[in-house]
Amino acid sequence: MISIIASDMDGTLLNNEMTVSDFNAKAILKAQQQGVHFIVSTGRRYSEAQPLIAAQGITAPLITLNGAEVYDASGKMLDMVPITKTVSRAIFHTLTAQGYYFEVVGNDGVYSNNKVKRIEEIAYLLTNLNPDTSFKIAISLASARLELMDINYVDNYNELLDDPKKHVMKIIAFSQEGPKKLQPLSDELLAKHSSIKITSSSRSNIEINNVNAQKGIAVERYANMLNTPMSDVMAIGDNNNDVSMLKLAGTSYAMGNATVEVKQLANHLTDTNVNDGVGKAILEVLAKQ
Q1: What is the assigned CATH class of domain 4-81+213-288?
Q2: Interval 168-206: pLDDT, tens
Q3: What CATH number has the domain spanning 85-210?
């Protein structure tokens, strides 16, 4: 009996237009009407994720920043797991020394030290999601999108560490060379810092969190609050940062567009994110209840 459904967003719940489809929304609302708890588990910030489900009339708790923050359905923060400032400073030094562009997600917003690089990274993401879009057009779209996003620009990320009210929740490093360059970097950082966890949400980035800020850990905490065993939890995802919750959930679904690792790990396979895979998986499970 499934009591909790936890779903990733990008590449999973969201289609390539970055919206929740009507089909997916109806399936979620049907599950909630039948007493099943639905929770979003994403690498996004709360302010980026919540409006996307609210647009479809969905109210649900959110696990954000890969598990670094947890909110209840009303938007109240229940938990926060930052990277320590000492470790953050060391990671900043390593990434800067090796020439990586990276961004910092704080408890009060996203920080960048290079507007041009940020536009380029958004453009690369858009072309990966929509291969028919030229890079030139993607740059234009990224520039327009950037104006709508609340980004804080700083000259030096270490400024964040000097403010006692600011906390580093996640660090995202980018490389268009993908795993060829990012995997050795991940190995180096993990060898130096046992208190971090590294995942990714695309082949061109790595996402660095506190080792206790993982989707699986956060979903399990939420399940414990409801006195629900993990055997009664269903998780749906597509990428590396979903692995921890897919491993712990009794029922796990990989998206049709998921990575090979995720497909091998999950015990069920659903359709792609552009073909309402989340909604189809939910209806499949509800039909068996």
Answers
A1: alpha beta
A2: 999 999 998 889 999 999 999 999 999 999 998 888 899
A3: 3.30.1240.10
